[in-house]
Amino acid sequence: MAKRLIPTLNRVLVEKLVPPSQTAAGILLPEKSSKLNSGKVIAVGPGGRDVAGNHIPVAVKEGDEVLLPEYGGTEIKLGEKEYHLYRDEDILGTLHH
Amino acid sequence: MAKRLIPTLNRVLVEKLVPPSQTAAGILLPEKSSKLNSGKVIAVGPGGRDVAGNHIPVAVKEGDEVLLPEYGGTEIKLGEKEYHLYRDEDILGTLHH
Amino acid sequence: MAKRLIPTLNRVLVEKLVPPSQTAAGILLPEKSSKLNSGKVIAVGPGGRDVAGNHIPVAVKEGDEVLLPEYGGTEIKLGEKEYHLYRDEDILGTLHH
Amino acid sequence: MAKRLIPTLNRVLVEKLVPPSQTAAGILLPEKSSKLNSGKVIAVGPGGRDVAGNHIPVAVKEGDEVLLPEYGGTEIKLGEKEYHLYRDEDILGTLHH
Amino acid sequence: MAKRLIPTLNRVLVEKLVPPSQTAAGILLPEKSSKLNSGKVIAVGPGGRDVAGNHIPVAVKEGDEVLLPEYGGTEIKLGEKEYHLYRDEDILGTLHH
Amino acid sequence: MAKRLIPTLNRVLVEKLVPPSQTAAGILLPEKSSKLNSGKVIAVGPGGRDVAGNHIPVAVKEGDEVLLPEYGGTEIKLGEKEYHLYRDEDILGTLHH
Amino acid sequence: MAKRLIPTLNRVLVEKLVPPSQTAAGILLPEKSSKLNSGKVIAVGPGGRDVAGNHIPVAVKEGDEVLLPEYGGTEIKLGEKEYHLYRDEDILGTLHH
Prior knowledge:
7 copies of one chain form a homoheptamer. The first copy, chain A, is mostly beta strands and 97 residues long.
């Protein structure tokens, strides 16, 4: 039943990654320590335009792990799943192992 | 008697979809659960212009199911029916089954 | 004695249409029901310019029936008649039977 | 002794027309009735520039009767006479008999 | 000892003209009557640029008598003399006998 | 476990340099004295675009020592290390011995 | 130990000139009299860009004596010396003997 969303313009649909509260070995992580506000890119819009009419593609792509700003982002529920919608320029960077 | 509205510039006329409060099998859905602020596009304007004079067509089209922002939208009554008017850039995305 | 006004730039002179408070058959219409904030275009300006100097003609024309925003519009009395002056981009759409 | 002012850029020097408080036949006009905030153009500036550097001439000319906004306008006394200075884009329209 | 100032960009250095409080024949002028906020242009900057990079020369020149806005202007003391610095676009017009 | 961040657009990832509270010879430095808000550039984004669509590269590069503004900067924890993210135009200058 | 700063973009590093509180002949100058908010240019950035991407060089150069605005300017300590950082467009003019 859940619908699929294709964002408009330079909007980016992100599923937030909830960091583990314990390490693999089961040690409880201090509450604030490893809380990285990050998420996975689910879908991106076709891109926007600058004032001179040039097409500006979205800088991140589906599957990227991205660092999110502390504030902003529109909460969206599709079926039982929760997502957040950001503007491309508000995404802080891409995370790499 | 109801009149037909052709929006100006990049305005989009939308009829909001009121989600069923029960599933097909009659189970009452929790109030907040599946409330997706969505609607169907009834009519779109001819598009706008950027500051350099380039014509910018509207990104969504008649019949599209669209995800609407929580706020904004101008309420319009045409005859007995209620619609909402949005600017194209405020529509969050298109919904697909 | 009443003077004629030619609006400047992309201004539009509108005469508001006051909707009948009764149907043709005399049934009193509920106060809020059919109140469509609409009007007839009396005169339009020569159009404006975008920042790049391109001439932008007015989107509506004399005789059009237009949907007006709830707020805005400058009240103008020419002789005994009352008009309202809008900027072209504030007019929501054109109404068609 | 009164000096002559040549406005700069797209400024327009206007002498306000004070509407007669009586009709020709001497009938006292209700205070608010025919108060049209209008004036005669005395002098105009050379015009302004848009951000792309294009020269934009002033839309009204010396001798025009113009409709003025309710607010704005800089009061200027040249000798014993009182004038008002407006920006071209704030003038609402030209009045014609 | 007093230093000479060359304004930057489209700034204009003005020496305010203090209007005589009496006419030539010695008649005391009512305090508010002929107070024209005017001054003489002492020096002008090389001019500014619009956003498209076009050079925009200053519209007034050294020696011009100019009409000044009621507010704004940066007070500057060079030696014992007092001047005011304005941006070119804030000067209302040039005064001519 | 710590992830590597590639900033987006013209963002710059900086590791703040904490100035020694003592001189090499062990003399305690007055608290406010040598506190230079500086840091080392760890990573830079691909650069931004101006409104006309021109690509604007980042002005500083990896390894530069930079002078940071007193306010602004987004605090980021990658693993156990703390970084700050700035926009390129907010970095005040580069420091050289 | 003091480091050298190269400003970014169109920033200008200035060392404020503190006017003598006495004339050469030792006469105490009234506190407010000759206080000219001026300084010497120590270093300038490479210049900025306008929105159309054109490079805009800094208008003042190293060694110039400049008139500074009353407010603004970022205070910077390099070693024991105090400097102020301004944006090029905020410098009011250059001073000449």
